[in-house]
Design goal:
Elements lengths: L3 E7 L3 E6 L32 H14 L7 E4 L11 H11 L4 E5 L7 H6 L5 E4 L6 H7 L8 H14 L3 E8 L7 H14 L3 E6 L14 H11 L3 E3 L14 H14 L4 H8 L3 H13 L3 E6 L2 E6 L3 H7 L2
Parallel strand pairs: 2-3, 3-4, 4-5, 5-6, 6-7, 7-8
Antiparallel strand pairs: 1-2, 9-10
Helix pairs in contact: 1-2, 8-10, 9-10
């Protein structure tokens, strides 16, 4: 699979089949918490990345082969900002014609102020933009955006989307310990959230190894406190738990699925066990073999062991630009 990955474990969207429209990190932001790593160069240039036909053909084949075991959601995610793709509307329409599995668009929301970009995403079942800051200064600290998108434009886009979009509008706030968590910042966030008026506010934190190693998750207490500030719309993001479905993926195939999964982002062994749906023993064997062959390695983040992909020399070169 070139443009699909997973299904991967998602705290917010269960077993989620991912669509990654990019071959390398491409984003308007360079968030300190990004689990894909640093953005080589932020951009606001909309372009064609993954060819729409290729993405749709791949998805068609996947859905045919897995018709008795469909994912909970099909999610635009992965290594970049999906609204930078000029043909995202064609891809969303194509998916909607192909399946009833709901389409989720995770976006940093930075381009929604542009009318043409906003029009392209209106058919997604779930629109999930982010807001991590209540003021321009914190926005610069957390999201480190391209200069072309100041805080005011981000807010303008989030408000415009609320007016135009008719599906489930979920705003995500990711709290980073000590950066966007003082009381004043939380209250400013609350003010913007009230203006935007999303259907729900997903409160998230840094669960996976971030772009900047100095960045850490907030405590559950902080998440609970912010949820109280937000009120009834708050949905603190819980730890992912699998559905307990067991599949007979093994050998080469299981190892290939693991490599694809951790190639998108580091995962814990438990997350992969739940998401792929194999036994603990099969997963442990496969992980051990991949470790021994030098394809993956263990990475500690906040005391939790994750499995990460050893990058190819070419990829390392790209991400160091
Ligand atoms: S977290 Fe999302 S918006 Fe931020 S840099 Fe990574 S891909 Fe871009």
């Amino acid at each position: 699979m070139r443009w699909l990955f997973g299904p991967v474990p998602s705290r917010r969207f269960g077993r989620s089949l991912g669509i990654d429209l990019f071959t390398r990190k491409t984003c308007t932001f360079n968030c300190v918490y990004c689990e894909v790593g640093l953005t080589p160069r932020t951009t606001d240039t909309v372009d064609v990345f993954a060819p729409a036909e290729e993405v749709l053909n791949e998805l068609r084949q996947y859905l045919t082969e897995h018709h008795d075991d469909l994912p909970d959601f099909i999610t635009f995610a992965g290594s970049g900002e999906p609204t930078l793709h000029r043909d995202i509307d064609t891809i969303i329409h194509g998916i909607r014609e192909m399946t009833t599995v709901p389409v989720v668009l995770l976006t940093n929301g930075s381009l929604l102020y542009r009318e043409n970009v906003l029009q392209r995403v209106l058919d997604a079942d779930y629109l999930v933009p982010s807001l991590d800051a209540g003021c321009p200064e914190t926005y610069q600290l957390v999201n480190r955006p391209t200069a072309a998108i100041p805080f005011e434009k981000l807010i303008e886009g989030l408000l415009a989307a609320r007016k135009a979009y008719r599906g489930h509008y979920l705003l995500e706030v990711l709290l980073v310990d000590g950066i966007n968590t003082d009381e004043g910042e939380l209250l400013k966030l609350k003010k913007w959230i009230d203006k935007i008026n999303p259907d729900a506010v997903q409160i998230n934190t840094v669960f996976r190894p971030p772009a900047e190693s100095s960045v850490h998750a907030v405590s559950e207490k902080t998440i609970r406190h912010f949820a109280e500030i937000i009120g009834e719309k708050a949905v603190p993001v819980a730890y992912y738990t699998g559905r307990g479905v067991r599949r007979h993926v093994q050998g080469e195939l299981l190892r290939a699925v693991i490599l694809k999964t951790v190639g998108i982002r580091p995962c814990t062994v438990q997350e992969m066990t739940d998401s792929i749906g194999v036994s603990q023993k099969a997963m442990a064997n496969a992980v051990e073999k991949l470790m021994a062959s030098g394809k993956i390695y263990a990475l500690d983040f906040d005391g939790v062991r994750h499995i990460a992909l050893v990058e190819e020399p070419e990829k390392q070169k790209d991400s160091s630009k």
